[in-house]
Fold this sequence. Notes:
The structure holds two protein chains of two kinds.
Chain A: H1 20-24, E1 40-46, E2 52-58, H2 60-63, E3 68-73, H3 74-80, E4 104-105, E5 111-117, H4 120-127, E6 131-136, H5 143-146, E7 161-169, H6 172-177, E8 181-190, E9 202-208, E10 213-218, H7 223-234, E11 241-244, H8 259-271, E12 277-280, H9 283-289, E13 295-305, E14 311-321, H10 332-335, E15 348-356, H11 371-389, H12 393-400, E16 409-410, E17 416-417, H13 422-433, H14 435-447, E18 451-465, H15 470-473, E19 483-490, E20 496-500, H16 509-521, E21 528-531, H17 552-578, E22 586-591, E23 594-599, E24 605-607, H18 608-616, E25 632-638, E26 654-668, E27 675-685, H19 692-711, H20 728-731, E28 742-746, H21 767-780, H22 794-801, H23 809-812, E29 813-817
Parallel strand pairs in A: 1-12, 10-11, 14-15, 20-21, 27-28
Antiparallel strand pairs in A: 1-5, 2-4, 2-6, 3-5, 7-15, 8-13, 8-29, 9-10, 9-12, 13-14, 16-17, 18-26, 19-20, 19-25, 22-23, 23-24, 26-27
Helix pairs in contact in A: 7-8, 11-21, 16-17, 19-21
Chain B: E1 2-11, H1 15-22, H2 25-28, E2 35-40, E3 45-54, E4 57-71, E5 75-84, E6 87-99, E7 104-116, H3 117-145
Antiparallel strand pairs in B: 1-7, 2-3, 3-4, 4-5, 5-6, 6-7
Amino acid sequence: MSTEPENGSWVGKGLPRKEDGRLLRGRGKFIDDIKLHNMLYLKFVRSPYAHAKLLGVDISAAEAVPGVVCTLTGAEIAAQTQPFIEIGPDPFRQIKDYPLAVTKVVYQGEPVAAIVAASPHIADDAAELVQVEYEGLDAVVDAEEALTDKVLLHDVAGTNQVWRGVFEYGDIEKAFAEAAHVVHIDKMHFHRFSSTPLENNAVIGQWDPKDEQIYYWCNNSFPSFAIQFIAAHLGIRIDRIRVQTFDIGGSFGIKITTYPQMAVCALASKKAGGRPVKWIETRSEHNVSSAHGNERTFRDTRVALDKNGVITAIDSRHIDDCGAYPRYEPLGCVIWAQVFPGVYRFKNARIDFRQAVTNKCPVGPNRGYSRMQHLWFLERVIDICAHQLKIPADEMRLRNYIRPEEFPYVTPNGCVYDSGNYPKMMEVAKERIGWDAWKKKQAAARAEGKWIGIGFGTTLDSGTNNFGQSQIVNPYAPFSGNSQGANCKLDIYGEVVVAVGSCPQGQGHETTAAQVVADVLNIHPDMVTVRTGFDTERNVHTGASGTYASQFAVSGLSAVHGAAQKLKAEMRRLGAFLLTTTEDNLEFGVGQQGPEIRRKDNGESANYWRLANVVNVNSAVLPAELYELTLNCRYVWRAPFKVPDKDKKYGSLTLTYASQLHMAVVEVDRETFIPRILDYVAVDDCGKVINPPIVEGQVYGATAHGIGASLMESCVYDSVGNMLTSTFSDYTPITAVNMPRVKYAHIETPSPHSYSGAKGMGEGGAAPIHTISAALQDALFAEGVFIDDSFNNPDSLYRAIVKKEICQTAKLVKAEKGK
Amino acid sequence: MAIKFGGEFEVPRKPEEVYDFLTDPEKFGPLLPDFQGMTMQDDKHFTVKVNVGISYIKGTAEVKMELAQAERPQRAQYKGQGSVAGGNVSLVAGFDLAPTAAGTKVAWQGEAQIFGKLASVAGGLLEPLGKKNLQKLIGGLQAALQ
Lengths: 819, 146
């Protein structure tokens, strides 16, 4: 407790994380640490086929294995449950999504049976004895091909197209008619990759016959969403489901969609007489069948520019691949529109957006969900146009950026960017990387024949979303706005205890929530106990509670702040009674007997124990007018959203817009074609920083994720739907060894939408992917190569530079002079 | 993962003799590389067991085979489906026979599709391994028909 607040505030101070002592000493509580009496273990039998009819599942040999308690098949589950809810409209609302395949499998790794046994090893061995008869079907692994509907995944839908919508704003035709330049880009592609959390998905489910309640101990990162799906699927009331999360070893969004596995664990427990059933996902299962990020193809892009290189219009067709089942989709079909123009000022645009199912792992909201694909597209457009028009990439951005004085900025589709200063971020990035020196080094290196490029990526991390955008994809979706709950109380002995509806996975909620409460009550953060993890029975959550979409700093901490303020108001009323004074003669602080409330005039005080004692234990001294005081205050923070205009696809879709500007110097080796990062800067603006080391840590994490995705990590499928990168040997996730030294800097443009000025952060808009693509293009444009794919490894660069099979500017990009 | 294969060779036997050899599972089966055994269901259906192994992924593949086309003495085609090392394989292999002055020209072609863990974790090794094993099979056929 030796540290002091900064300028009188704990918010903004780089306090060590409260949770680190526990986590770094191996004392964290993760799902696999939990051992329950009579616990059983579940193993899934998974399909080797990406697309096949399921002719029969023979589980008799598995059931005969000593130690096997029960099994489940898809047919058995279908007979006692409803298919999962579909978020989208018809015809995909009609599809039958069960947690185990019933009549057909539609992706490799889809579960077809579950074995429940007394030990994980028995379950593993028995699972190998399950005989499944398949009739192979042609698979479709390309979204554009899927849209031809020659191979159908879900017959009842009659199409593979999950959703289609045209987002059109301004006057496109006029803008193109008046353009000085028009650039055409044939095709670009954002590849499929995922996240590799240290802890895989994990669930313990128990359907307890004693109280007919389902208990979950799990690491799902959006439990309030999951239980809505599970309750409807199992046909039980939602109040019969209790979910608890504890420490979670990373999620990055892809742990949102584990409700199918959670449902199976509950059903298995029911069949096993109420014994708890644990499922711990293996790494291979995670890679093949948990959730991947969305893959997207950008077709027939036309860009109109004026004579100065300012973009005036964009027209493009986007095709999103959501894998075999929509699950969290088609929300991704609108979520990208939160950042419709990116950081740029163009007003006229038409995006024809389609989404298709393919015989690949279903997608989930992977870090930067849906927006990073679109932001990458816009950054490619900027760089390709800059090269075509021979305008330096930095200058091109400066000419097109939304200007600082234009905030709050209303985008063509009605989103309101709260704050930002993109030119300032570029200035800081240039200073940190040593721009002038690198430009000289680059020129000298090029003279020696080296391929060195300098690239920028400017992105947005839109946080605290308006669920009303779901009504743009499905007008009947019953969601809108956003809310988060928190509870702040004085416990019976006067301890300050905070509970939040989030489920942190490394974001330091325990620390930042304590900082906020400490500021409100003028005490030290160590005097605040934060109950981390989600628990339905704490009754603080709302239907939007969880940890996702870069929002805790805004929604979570605003809820904590509101609850602390309510508590403070009650304490003040009580203090005035106990100290026989007026409320405005009271102040909060720490005295000799711990946290206290005291009179300003004479210093007489009541410590928290006394306050709590009077309300909870010694209440006969209270006057009747104070009976309403509980010192146990719940507050629900609600984002000030309206339901968007569904027809015009117009409205505020997100509350805060953190921004990132990354800059990289990359060299491509002329012999091996290995791209090597020579220098890297990450500049972040998340408004008021609550805890600088926590923010910096998340920037490093997001940067590593993006660099890995850009150069090393790709979910590769062959033509029949085998995933060829199902192990870390092939997926090659980035490690510390592959990381360049990242130079971090930040600027602060406070948000007017949060009480502290903070903006949600942590996703980073996948800035490294855009940045490295830009740097590679800068290095290779003179070779006739433009970067049309977000994934670039030595093999693809060799095919582009030497074989000239891909990325050929002359074939795929065309620039025309207009008026 | 799909592996396509094909080629031709000549043997100093009449087409009828070659055809009879190729369509007799009990003669043809043992020529499969790492053959472990076979069970006949009827004269057109049988199950073969072969050892399969790539690095640490080892196991026995049990492949249900069917003599799908039998046009004596021009053409024979086998279809098969089986499971191996956490995956499945389906294959089609055809033989077209044509008389030549010295005997019979055998044109062979086919495709194997491999699904599951084997393709996922060892996909890059499968094609060269498949070709090597095919060479063994064709070499065995040629030797048997000399």
